[in-house]
Structure formats: C-alpha cells, structure tokens
Amino acid sequence: MNTFGKIFTLTSYGESHGAAIGGVIDGMPAGLHIDFDSVAREMARRRPGSSALVTARNEADEVEFLSGIMDGVTLGTPIGFCIRNTQQHSADYDNLKHAYRPGHADFTYQAKYGVRDHRGGGRASARETAARVVAGALAKQVLAKYGVTVSARLARVGGVENTATEPDALCSEVQDVIMRAKAEGDSVGGVVECTVHGCPVGLGEPVAGKLQALFAAAMMSIPAAKGFEYGMGFAGADKRGTEVIDSWQSAPSDPRGIRAAANNSGGIQGGISNGEDIVMRIAFKPTATLLRDVHTVTDQGEDTVLKARGRHDPCVAVRAVPVVEAMAAMTILDAMLISRALIRF
After folding, report:
1. What confidence tens digit (pLDDT) does each residue in 244-276 have?
2. Which one, out of 18, 38, 198, 272, has a CA that is 20 to 30 A from the CA of 290?
3. How wide is the angle at C-alpha 141 spanned by C-alphas 54 and 131, nearest 5°?
4. Whole-prediction pTM value?
5. Rounded CA Rg of the chain
6. Sign of the dihedral defined by the CA atoms of residues 126, 53, 85, 122, in that order
7. Which has the closest alpha carbon to 332: 138, 145, 143?
C-alpha cells in the first residue's frame, strides 16, 4: 500500500538512507505547462537543514523528472521522478541495529516483515514525504487552473499559538518553545491548519468515500500525525445545535446563489463539498527521537538504554506544513477527476 489516490495517484519509493527516494505520478492531465521553479520552492519549504529549528541533515532535494514530461509539458503518461539522498550518516544509527526505539516503527516493522531498515527508520522515516511534496506541487498547478488554492500554516506548537501572519513564519514565542526543547534534548508537538479555497460543490461521495474521510486518510498517512478534525471538529461536541447550525442565506453574487452564514461544517456536508472553504486541522506528536537517555529493549528482549545520535527535528510539525498542503491538493484533485466520471440523466 504505497499508492495514494484513485485516478490521480502517487506511488512513492525509497528509504531514508537508501540511494534515493521518489515516485511515479499517474493520472496527471496532459498539456499542462509545468512551473519547475514552483516545484523547487515547495521542496525548499520541506527541505531539511534549512534552519536551527529543524534537522541539520542538509539535503539539496533536487527533483529529477524521468518521464511523462516533454519540453516542460505533461504528456498524460506516468511521471517518474527521483530525489537523490546525498547526506546519509548511516553510522549514526549503528547502535539501533538491535534496539527498538520507543515511539518508532522499529518493533512493528520487525514483527510484520521479519526484517527492518534501522538506518534512520528506513521507509517509516519522514524522508519519504519529500515525494509527496513533488506530487502535491504538480497537483496544485492543476488546481490553480480551476481557481482552487490550498494553504496551510503551523497553528500551534507545544500549546502555544503561532501568531505570525506571514506564510511559513513562526512567532518568537513558538521559536522559543522549539529551541528550549531542543536544548534540553526533548521535543514538542504541534497542530497544522489547512484551508482549501475555491473548492467546487459536489466533491466526495455520500457513504463510502466521504470527502472528509478521504482527507482524514491522507493526513493520517503522514508520519507522526495523531489526530484529524475539520470544521468545528471536537469543539462541536461541547456545543448545542443552535450554536453550530450552518444556516443558509441568499447570496446573489455567489455562483451558488447562497452562502452559509457560518462554516461550522468545514466546507463538507453529508460527505460532499458545499463550496465553502474546507478547513481542517492535523495534530502531530512530539518527535519520538529524544537526544537523551531512554529505556528500551533489544530484539532479544534485553533491557538497554539508548541515547540517540544524529540529526533530528525537535518539532516535526514545522516541516509537516508543506506535506499537509501536498496531501490536501492530491486529495482534492483526485476527487475532482472522480467527479468527472459521474453520469447524470
């Protein structure tokens, strides 16, 4: 299960410390002029080594497109791409070859496959998400032709609201929380908020394939994601119906002729988009790797103490922002392509 989507699909490949990571995108509409500079900008947002707030692993993350594009134009055929790994420090993980890191996939991968890649988590590493950002960058360019935009921001870190107003910016209070955790060999979690603007009405299915379920599946596939909500989310459980009802009102200037007085539904009703902004929030756990002594066991069941070495994010939510956008863009584009298959008499 390394493929996302039904019509617009991404099959990703590669491990954190392998030769490369990459993917194959299928279902990409033909005739789109690709803005490669835009792809590079998206990759730079997720790139490691970009600041003191993220891992020091300094990968260039240059994308090499192998197929499906000629003279900068999509051919409608599978788009293969490759991102070389150039800054692996695999020796940093030698002490983990026989020890299970708490909070990681070491034990579960060993139990499932009988073998695991201990070098930086292998396939379970967030390094894999770079391939998703490539596919999301291309999906965004298709969506832009239809007036659909996807934007995300880091809303909260360690319980502190991010009050910065510029995209991808962090207020000083949030930066202090992250740097303090890093200095103590600890980590913090965060919440990413994502908004889809200009979404067409009618995307998603009424029972299986509800649009919010597609978003939830996409977001919860991101490493370290621990929670998903949309619209009023869990806060709605503490309200009365009169407080959260989305009343419709006349709106002659809106193409639909109506607008919701509020958007507590988060742009989705009955599993189908209603044309309002789709607003969702994704919770990310604190980074499982701690740069301090932690108790664990070996693959022989022996007690041991680990102190991680290497380069790690003190807050994975920082670099998760463009990944969330990518998954949202792929989900929306796939839903739009599926809706074209609907036959109405």
Report:
1. 999 999 999 998 999 999 999 999 999 999 999
2. 18
3. 40
4. 0.91
5. 21
6. negative
7. 143
